[in-house]
Structure formats: structure tokens, C-alpha cells
Amino acid sequence: MNAFNFFLPTQMVYGQGVVKKAGEALALGSKALIVTGKSSARLSGALDDVLAVLPGEYVIFDQVENNPSLETVEAGGKLAKDEGCDYVIAIGGGSPLDAAKVMAVLAVNDLPALDLYTAGWENRALPIAAIPTTAGTGSEVTQYAVLTLEQEETKKGLRGADLFPQVAYLDPNYTASLPLHVTVDTAVDALSHLVESYLSNRATRASDFVALQGIALWGTAIPALRQGRFDLDDRDALLLASSLGGIAIAQTGTALVHALGYSLTYYEGFPHGRANGICMAAYLEYTKQAAPERVETVLELLDLASVEAFGELMDELFADHAGKLDLAPETIAHYVNKALLTNNIKNSLGNPAAEDLTKILTNSIR
Ligand SMILES: [Fe+2]
């Protein structure tokens, strides 16, 4: 029997219309900093729903870009401070949610955002209500916030128990207006969280329970992902699978797929989910050496006959996207070295060394 610790302090409120039903309970204080990206909070209807029922004052920061920068979180933190906000409502995909978490920290701590990585922070972040409009990040139920660090030429995560949102409102209808490529990209991110958690050397029986349910649920949406058409049941499956992925990685962290994927996003410009998807089949093939039964279980739950079939699914899902990956050996070596600097690598089964990562990345771009 292996002991474990399972921590999930976020209240999840799941279902259609949950924001409007929450009504005044949506307010976690007297004045909200509402954080959104440039479009999805409005297009999804989530922002309108929030504004329709939110009591008290608010100020909106709607300038969060994809892969948010330190400058953006500092601007949001300053706005919260100047306006006297005492809680945060984050609406959107992973970028607005992660940026909002760091703004919640900077609103009550006087230091440059970069210093959070080295010095941490003293004062507890403002309470956060998270409303995802994509089904991928799982950030609404994690203690992580990933930002782009130009100084280190990569994406890098902060973590802290106070970065868990106090409450997450999950309504699959908010993901219905997503363009197909965002739906696919974020879905593959969710799958990578679930699989990397299940194949982590930090996996526990409790995190496995969550990850396996999530993988099975994700699998039910494969026909819709292949066809590019989604009904509410598909949206529901993907959103819940995404949150289960968040709960799972909150316990285990992510692994080498994310470590390699960060360079494919930072240097090659691939969206996060696709960057992960590029590496996943070779990662499964590699992990078969250390944990053949676990890899087999993943494939069975997805109703895929082999790792090759998994790779074909990824190719099919991303077939319409522009951008072919062709990396020189020295570029691969650079990305491998950057990945080796991350903690994610240590979570991977098989204790991967530089040569393993090189092989995985090389096989990924064939
Ligand atoms: Fe991710």
C-alpha cells in the first residue's frame, strides 16, 4: 500500500447556467478585477452572464494575450491595486486564467513579477473565481500559473497553494463558440495532462482514479474531434475531462511532454496543445519500456490499437494546420537542454536522459 496526499481546495460548480444560478454568490469580495483575453470571454457569453448577476463594483482587464508576459500580469496587478479590488474573476482559456492568478498575487505583494520565481511571495493572493471558456488548461482547479519568460526564452510555471481558485464555474456551453482549431488544440492539452499524470512517477491511486476517468471520458469525444463537429455531450465530455486533467496534474505535475512542448511554443510558435500533441506518440513509445501496462491502459481507454494509431490520431486532428516541423540537430539539442532544466522531466517514468529526449523529439518530427 502506498501512502498519498490528495489536495483540491477548489469548489467546482458544474453544469449549464451555473454562473447565472450563482447570482450574488459570484462575488468573493466587494470589488472584482475581471480578467479576460481579447475575445473568448465575450464571444462565449460568459462575461455577459457574469455582468448580469454580479453585485458590487468591478473593473475589467481584457488585454491578456496568448502565453501571457510578465508585463501583462504586472499591468493587471497594478490595476487591481489602484482600483482597490479585493478579489479576481478570471474568464477565458489558460492564458487569462493563469495571468489572473499572478495578478491576484501582485495585487497584494510589492515586487516585480520575475521575482516571484525566485523569492516567492509573502501575502496570500486575492481569492479567485475561475470560469473557463476552453476545455484544455484545467487551470481552474490547479495551483499553477504558466507565463512566458523572455529572460529565459521559455514558458515557466509558478505554483502556490493560494493559486488554486476558490471556486470554478464550469459550463460546457461557454466552449460551444470556440473555433475548431482551438477546440482541438485545447483538447489535446487536456489529454496530455491526463496521460502525463497517469504516467508520472508521482502518480498515486487517487490521482490515477481521476486521470483514468478523464482519459476514458476524453475518448468518448474522439469521433467528434475527428469529424470536427461537437454537440453539447461532446463539449461536456471535453470540459469535464479537462478539469479532471487539472485535478490530476495538481497532484502529480506534468512530465516531459510539457517540458519539450514549451520550446515548440516559444521558438516555433505552435499552440500549447499542439506542441504537446507533436511529442505524445514518441513519449508513449518511450514510456512503454518503463510502464508497458500503463501505456496499454491509456490506449485501451482511448480505443486505439497501438501507439502508431495514437500518432495517426494526432496527425489527423492537426492535419489542417499550417506549419511543418523541421528541426536541425543543434536545435533539437538546444530544446532538449532546456527541457532538462525543468522539474517536469523528473516526473517522467523511465528517468529520461538527454539521449532519450533527443530520440523522442527526433521521432516526433518525422
Ligand atoms: Fe498544458
Describe, in plain words, how this protein is organized in 3D:
With 366 residues, the chain is an alpha/beta fold. The chain folds into 2 domains: 11-173, Rossmann fold, CATH 3.40.50.1970; 180-364, Dehydroquinate synthase-like, alpha domain, CATH 1.20.1090. The protein is 50% helix and 11% strand. It is built from 16 helices and 8 strands. It has helices at residues 18-22, 40-43, 46-53, 70-83, 94-106, 116-119, 180-198, 205-220, 222-227, 232-252, 256-266, 272-290, 292-301, 307-317, 329-340, 354-364, and strands at 11-14, 31-36, 57-61, 87-92, 128-132, 144-149, 154-159, 167-170. The strands form 2 sheets. The chain has a 6-stranded parallel beta sheet, with helices on one face. A hairpin with a 4-residue loop joins strand 6 (144-149) and strand 7 (154-159). The longest helix has 21 residues, at 232-252. It binds fe (ii) ion.
The fraction of residues in strands falls at 5-15%
Rg value:
19 Å
Which strand order do you get reading across the main beta sheet?
A: 1-8-5-4-2-3
| String of helices and strands | EHEHHEHEHHEEEEHHHHHHHHHH
Biggest sheet layout = 6 strands, parallel
Strand tally is 8
Average predicted confidence as pLDDT: 96
**Global geometry:** globular
CATH topology of the largest domain: Dehydroquinate synthase-like, alpha domain
Small-molecule binders here are: fe (ii) ion
State the oligomer. Answer: single chain
CATH class of the largest domain: Mainly Alpha
How many helix segments?
A: 16
- The portion of residues assigned to helices is 40-55%
